[in-house]
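Data deposition worksheet. Section B asks for the primary sequence of the deposited chain exactly as it was used as input, without tags or linkers unless they were present during the calculation. Section C holds the resulting structure in token form. Section D is free text for depositor observations; keep each observation to a single sentence. Incomplete worksheets are returned to the depositor.
Section A, Depositor: J.P.
Section B:
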Amino acid sequence: MKTAELYRFTRKKMKLLRSSYGFKCFKLVIWFVISFIFFVRFISRHQPSTNSLRTALISHSQSNVASRALSESNAGSIRRQRQGLLNDLKIYVYDLPAKYNADWLSDERCSNHLFAAEVAVHKALMNSNVRTFDPSEADFFFVPVYVSCNFSSGNGFPAIGHARSLLSSAVELISSELPFWNRSNGSDHVFVASHDHGACFHAMEDRAVANGIPEFMKNSIILQTFGVKHRHPCQDVEHVVIPPYVSPEKVLSMLSQSPVNGRRDIFVFFRGKMEVHPKNVSGRFYSRRVRTEILHKFGKNRRFYLKRHRFAGYQSEIVRSVFCLCPLGWAPWSPRLVEAVALGCVPVIIADGIRLPLESAVPWPEISLTVQEKDVGKLAGILDYVAATNLSLIQKRLWDPKVRRALLFHDELEDGDATWHILVALCERLNRSQRGSRLWSQ
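Section C:
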């Protein structure tokens, strides 16, 4: 091949190669551009929208607010319904001779000790709008007999050995002077039994069970501090479980000095009877040995503030405490339940099978802890776990003023206080009875 021809051939090949390479590059560029456009569209379609996220958050927030508002509305509705019930309620209070009530008040302890609910309910009813002076229109009849104000000269504790005879005498009087007891056989009459085993009127359970509820009271309604979840002869009667009495004035005075959300430097508190060597009394050991176990197991634990001796200012210790032990004594309940709640200390209830006061009004599962008697030796671990998990939530619910108010009695009936909730419970029984009568008549 000639030189000129070879030159032309080489240029032609090079031109062709350049044309093929350029075409490939062009295709590569086009593919890249198209891919980039699709990628941008994909991102723009799938990235979260700020506006829609804001809308979702607002919607969620509004849902929570609506839920809380609905809950509060329901609670308010229930409260209005209960208040409506009380507006229609009528209670006749018997005007008994002073020997049944007023005479006992000469000892100031009568209206201030742990059994003084019998005095407080009477005072509140005397001054309330539910009281009627016309017995013919009454829904209930209140029999004001103070049986817990006979203080022993030996140990100073209330002695209730006279309770049955005093109550029997009162019933004889009201049934002979007015027709209302005999008309209903006492079923619409209300008594208070604010001591260890309620309407059985004895501090020792075996004696209380042996004596039973007085025959003349078995058809009546008993307001009693004693309550258990199992069948028990001392609550085998129509009854309402009420709080033991704690002075509201003392509570408010203490809270004015140390608010419920103040400093709490005592982790676990208990002050009361703890026997080192429990004695067998009538076949039973005090506190079923629970308090003795607490003393033996935690007496040297520096986080457990345990004291066996009385101290008049012990409420100042409760208001400094995170957890307050509430073990059973001879009976399952004690005023510590109310004192702990009122002063913002989480009650640790150690009393198997106890029925707590006003359970429909007080959210006990949310504001307290329950430890079985057999697990009392594990208290340290249990309380440590609660302190590390949901203590703040329990305290928040416990410190709600409505909870404190529901467990305290006042001389004047107050909306939402202990007597108010007792009256609500009576109203609910009255409504059930009336509905039952209507169904029976049909």
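Section D:
The two ends are 128 Å apart (CA to CA).
The first helix runs from residue 3 to 46.
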